[in-house]
Amino acid sequence: MKEIFEDFLIKDDIGYYCRYGDFYIDAMYPVAKNIISHAHGDHATNGHKTMYATAATFAFMKNKFPKIAENSLEVVTFEHTFKLGNVNITFFPAGHILGSAQVLMECQGVKYLYTGDYKLQEDATCEPIVLTQADVLITESTFANPAVSHPDVEKEILKLKDRPSNIMLGCYTLGKAQRLTALINDLLPEREVLVHHKMYPVHKLYNELGYKRLCYTLYNRKAMKDGSTNKIYLVPPLTFNSYFKAKNVLRAFASGWERLQRQNDIELYISDHVDWKDILYFIDKVDPRQVWTIHGDGRYLKKHFDGKLIVRDILSA
């Protein structure tokens, strides 16, 4: 059995560094070589000399960073292997948002799988997750808690049905807003989706690059006030919070976090991350020798697998 390098990927103040390939994953500050798992702002930053990501991830980044240097972008297709230093790297879909990738790294016969953010629930707007075996699973642990169980998404969306009012629905601009639009289009066809101006270009990119046609219109004040009360207005978090006294609308925020449901008119537990059962299922399918946790609290996983599987936080520099 090949030796696992305990320091294969190290967390430092910049991101996650692999000295065996001399690259970072999801670096927060400019570096020479950076692999970007997906386009959310806590993973994707600009200014790196060379960036490796999927075409969709770069499309979203170009929308956010119009002056991004084209000659710094290396587009990676799923399941195509490339090499950095002594490490062979392959992207697999993560199911989190359109273009999101798990990063499989192989070095001296040992496979290390960095998940980025991922989900197992169905989502018609992005690539479904692909399961692959690895010796070391480096997994996000945002909701790695036995108390967390994400409900059925269709049942959650149907909470918005037959409400005699327009609805202001808070959600993240990239990924969540498009998933919600698709769900509303399919399950609540009587509802008209209006989107905030910051979401509008992202919706357009999803229609250009994605897997499901989204039906929506750009928000305008007149549309919300006039006509029938069948509108669902999607707004980003800051806008949602600034309208805390909005009248003549019901308020909801789509998230897996309980704290974001408080003081809203409708609770809407929709998450784009794995819950406890999902992460256990994923670990079983990946069948690793070790699990390293990132982006959350790995204590419950460590306790659950005590004596059966090595589970620890990723090492820090």
UniProtKB/TrEMBL annotation:
Matching Pfam families: Lactamase_B_2
Gene3D superfamilies given in the database record: Ribonuclease Z/Hydroxyacylglutathione hydrolase-like
Domain of life according to the entry: Bacteria
Domain Metallo-beta-lactamase: 35-163
Coiled-coil annotated spans: none
Alphabetized GO MF terms: exonuclease activity
InterPro entries, sorted: MBL, Metallo-B-lactamas, RibonucZ/Hydroxyglut_hydro
Record key words, sorted: Exonuclease, Hydrolase, Nuclease
Name of this chain's protein: Exonuclease
